[in-house]
Write a structure and sequence with these properties.
The chain has helices at residues 11-19, 27-37, 52-62, 80-94, 110-118, 128-137, 153-158, 162-171, 187-196, 207-210, 227-238, 250-262, 276-287, 321-328, 349-359, 371-390, 398-408, 411-422, and strands spanning 42-45, 73-76, 101-104, 123-126, 147-150, 177-182, 201-204, 215-221, 242-246, 267-270, 293-296, 309-314, 338-344, 364-365. It is α/β, with parallel strands linked by helices. The chain has 2 domains: 4-209, 3-Layer(aba) Sandwich (Rossmann fold); 211-370 and 427-437, P-loop containing nucleotide triphosphate hydrolases (Rossmann fold), CATH 3.40.50. Helix 2 (27-37) packs parallel to helix 3 (52-62), helix 3 (52-62) crosses helix 4 (80-94) and helix 6 packs parallel to helix 8 (162-171). The structure holds one DNA strand.
DNA sequence: AAAAAAC
């Protein structure tokens, strides 16, 4: 494993990386940084969560002349949140060098962006449409662009941005370096590379490194109308620190949020019809752990890097098997462990098999969570919470109160009552979801998938038995109605 | 058919 020190990175960038806690490189970084530093065009076939942003950010920033106040680099990303996030990371990497990055995306007041651009950032991270808008308004000038990065190129293709991308690339007046990152390399992206790139070097992260080894994957075999109750039970048993729940449609997301709120969970939703300002607030609250549960469409499936996400739920199977990998990649980040639970209705079982083939991992069937499981889980959690507070009361006057109580009541009864008080019965408020969208799967001819993953097929069945209930509960509910709204952060 | 994205 290589460290950043070995890669000819200039001191102040290296220093910034160290401050960010980055020492050893990921495979894509080790391969892409030296190539990009040589000034070569590069195609990086790598997925989200592999350290891509640093892989292109370091060479991009190293190349910048901080005395020059023109825009010297542009990153194009498929979603607004991603543009924001990449911008934040570039700002950190470029901080010591005095390199400024401004995110440019739709849904935000354009005069505000023009003001930010007047402060002369050297880097811009953008979504395609708004970037094009600025280019045509001449509020972003391209004459000194040195580097262009296309992030998640295949996703931009899927979302129909390819014409915008081509229009942007065609506007570039002079020679520049182009770095293209894509999880898959469909024909259309290859053509784009041929047209706009100059003898690109191809860097591939091996298939095995693409898979998500530290994420435990499970599925629940459910009927459509059981999903919501199973979700709540699973949340009660698992007690995630932070969870993301993916739904298939915007309406679906709204309904799940509403249902969760009705039952006392702390949840917020995000999708493309939510006003941009609210979207950013929702993400911020979730990052700050002020909200425990984020319910989302695939707008949040790619690239979002939120630390502390312990659980991902696929409330609905994703249409596109690729999307499954991206969704579950929101957990288990930075080497931490994560769990992914997928709800599968009987007619969707074939689709699940397709996903298993793609990820080369078996997704383990999880037994239906019973009410008894939930109560056991809640009780265990309550016991855990009690245990954590036991020593805290040493020597204070609560001990005296406890002695008085124990002189009157049976000790076991007292503790049992305490557990019962803490292990609040889950809300049974009826919730009825109406937005059942049947899954439509593209028919694929003769197995000719367009995903050239370069690996063998077949499952690598890595975990045999141990199908039973595993439970880890850390945080516990507080009192009454807003039990999930207050979090017990201190151990 | 849905999702995302420029006004």
């Amino acid at each position: 494993m290589k460290t950043f020190n070995e890669l000819n990175i200039e001191a102040n960038v290296l220093d910034a990386l160290a401050k960010m806690g980055f020492e050893t490189t990921t495979p894509i970084q080790a391969q892409a940084i030296p190539t990009a530093l040589e000034g070569k065009d590069l195609i990086g076939q790598a997925q989200t969560g592999t350290g891509k942003t640093t892989a292109f950010g370091v060479p991009m920033i190293q190349k910048i002349d901080p005395e020059n106040k023109d825009v010297q680099g542009i990153v194009i990303a498929p979603t607004r949140e991603l543009a924001i996030q990449v911008g934040e990371e570039l700002n950190r990497i470029g901080h010591n060098k005095g390199v400024k990055t401004v995110p440019i995306y739709g849904g935000q007041d354009i005069t505000r962006q023009i003001k930010a651009l007047k402060r002369r950032p050297q880097l811009i991270t953008a979504t395609p449409g708004r970037l094009l808008d600025h280019i045509r308004r001449r509020t972003i000038k391209l004459q000194n662009i040195e580097t262009v990065v296309l992030d998640e190129a295949d996703e931009m293709l899927n979302m129909g941005f390819i014409e915008d991308i081509e229009a942007i690339l065609a506007e570039m007046p002079q020679k520049h370096q182009t770095l293209l990152f894509s999880a898959t390399m469909p024909k259309r992206i290859q053509l784009l590379a041929e047209k706009f790139m100059n003898q690109p070097e191809i860097v591939r992260v091996k298939s095995k490194q693409l898979t998500v080894d530290h994420i435990d994957q499970y599925y629940y075999d459910v009927k459509e109308n059981q999903k919501f109750d199973v979700l709540c039970r699973s949340l009660d048993i698992e007690s995630p620190d932070l969870a993301i729940i993916f739904g298939r449609t915007k309406k679906r997301v709204d309904e799940v949020v509403e249902g969760l709120l009705k039952r006392g969970y702390s949840a917020e939703g995000i999708h493309g019809d939510i006003p941009q300002v609210k979207r950013e607030k929702v993400i911020k609250r979730f990052k700050d752990q002020a909200t425990d549960i984020l319910v989302a469409t695939d707008v949040a499936a790619r690239g979002l890097d939120i630390s502390g996400v312990t659980h991902v739920y696929n409330f609905d199977l994703p249409q596109d098997p690729e999307s499954y990998v991206h969704r579950i990649g929101r957990t288990g980040r930075a080497g931490k462990k994560g769990s992914a639970y997928t709800f599968v209705t009987p007619r969707e079982m074939d689709h699940l098999k397709t996903i298993e083939k793609l990820t080369k991992r078996q997704i383990e069937k999880q037994s239906f969570p019973t009410y008894k499981d939930v109560m056991e889980g809640l009780q265990e959690g309550a016991i855990e919470e009690l245990k954590q507070t036991v020593w805290a009361h040493e020597g204070d006057n609560y001990r005296e109160a406890a002695k008085r109580l124990l002189s009157e009541e049976d000790a076991v009864d007292v503790v049992a009552s305490a557990i019962k008080l803490l292990a609040k019965e889950p809300s049974q408020t009826p919730v009825n979801l109406t937005s059942v969208e049947p899954l439509r799967v593209k028919r694929v001819k003769g197995g000719g998938q367009q995903n050239n993953r370069g690996g063998r097929g077949g499952n690598q069945n890595r975990r045999g038995g141990g199908g039973g209930g595993r439970r880890r509960r850390n945080n516990q509910k507080q009192d009454g109605g807003n039990r999930r709204n207050n979090r017990n952060k201190n151990q």
